[in-house]
């Protein structure tokens, strides 16, 4: 008769090839994911002559920072970074504030047509963003707001259906007895929202903040259409302009790409716990 230890050993030996295959697939996936970032970083540290004469994956010899110096000196890349940071801060604060208020209203306040209005609002998630670009451009041009800071933020600052949906579902999971106890103690609607509900919803609020930062740091189509000239260029538009202006100087373009990626890497390093927890909170697999 086979002992439990022997059966466990045989089972682990049988699973070993499957485990090795799984790790191999994960390693290949990691290499394919990280290779473009590594290539961008290595190219940014080369001179155009090194890039033309060496393998793309060869380590730069010697390492040079002249691409970054040109980018922030004559390339005028500081302004797009500042503009993008301002846009992201305003959009993140606005989306969180207005989405929290809308989600609380849909979750706990009673008013006629609440559920129908919520599902109608949620249905806008099915409309591709590109469909709304022309109407938005026409509206902002008609009121004289094209090529302004407000044109970059107003379409997004008043909340998003995705954020409202996630927050509403999270708020509905908060026990009603807790909110009733706060009302008995004399708390009003605003007090309950900002001192009871929001502190309990910190994980989902942090998750939405991270998603919003990444989304609007990387947005390209709307800034490209609504802005002209360098005054209100964002990072993505400025990088695309470099590709057109310096067709042969890929080292400078890769330096701009590296600068555009760096803030997102900082966000990941600082908020990695929230990013990992967001996988379960948002249902991503």
Automatic annotation (TrEMBL):
Parts of the chain that traverse the membrane: 20-45, 87-109, 116-137, 149-171, 250-271
Keyword Ribosomal protein: no
PROSITE patterns registered for this protein in UniProt: ABC_TM1 (PS50928)
Listed GO biological process terms: transmembrane transport
Top-rank taxon: Bacteria
UniProt keyword list: Cell membrane, Membrane, Transmembrane, Transmembrane helix, Transport
All residue ranges annotated as the ABC transmembrane type-1 domain in the record: 81-271
Family: Belongs to the binding-protein-dependent transport system permease family.
Protein name as it appears in the record: Carbohydrate ABC transporter permease
Organism, scientific name: Desertihabitans brevis
Lineage: Bacteria, Bacillati, Actinomycetota, Actinomycetes, Propionibacteriales
């Amino acid at each position: 008769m086979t002992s439990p230890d022997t059966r466990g050993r045989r089972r682990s030996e049988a699973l070993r090839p499957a485990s090795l295959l799984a790790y191999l697939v994960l390693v290949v996936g990691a290499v394919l994911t990280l290779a473009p970032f590594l290539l961008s970083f290595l190219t940014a540290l080369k001179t155009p002559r090194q890039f033309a004469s060496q393998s793309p994956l060869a380590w730069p010899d010697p390492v040079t920072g002249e691409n970054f110096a040109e980018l922030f000196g004559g390339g005028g890349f500081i302004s797009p970074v500042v503009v993008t940071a301002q846009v992201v801060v305003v959009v993140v604060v606005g989306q969180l504030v207005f989405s929290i208020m809308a989600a609380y209203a849909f979750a706990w306040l009673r008013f006629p047509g609440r559920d129908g209005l919520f599902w109608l609002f949620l249905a806008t998630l099915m409309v591709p963003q590109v469909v709304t670009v022309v109407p938005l451009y026409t509206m902002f041009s008609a009121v004289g707001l094209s090529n302004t800071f407000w044109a970059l933020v107003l379409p997004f600052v008043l909340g998003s259906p995705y954020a409202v949906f996630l927050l509403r579902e999270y708020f509905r999971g908060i026990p009603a007895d807790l909110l009733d106890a706060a009302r008995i103690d004399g708390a009003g609607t605003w007090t309950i929202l900002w001192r009871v509900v929001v502190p309990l919803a910190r994980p989902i609020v942090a998750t939405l903040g991270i998603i919003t930062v990444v989304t609007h740091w990387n947005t390209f189509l709307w800034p490209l259409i609504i802005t002209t000239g360098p005054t209100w260029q964002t990072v993505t538009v400025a990088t695309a302009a470099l590709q057109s202006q310096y067709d042969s100087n890929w080292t400078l373009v890769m330096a701009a790409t590296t600068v555009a990626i760096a803030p997102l890497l900082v966000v990941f390093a600082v908020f990695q716990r929230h990013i990992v927890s967001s996988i379960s909170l948002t249902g991503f697999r």
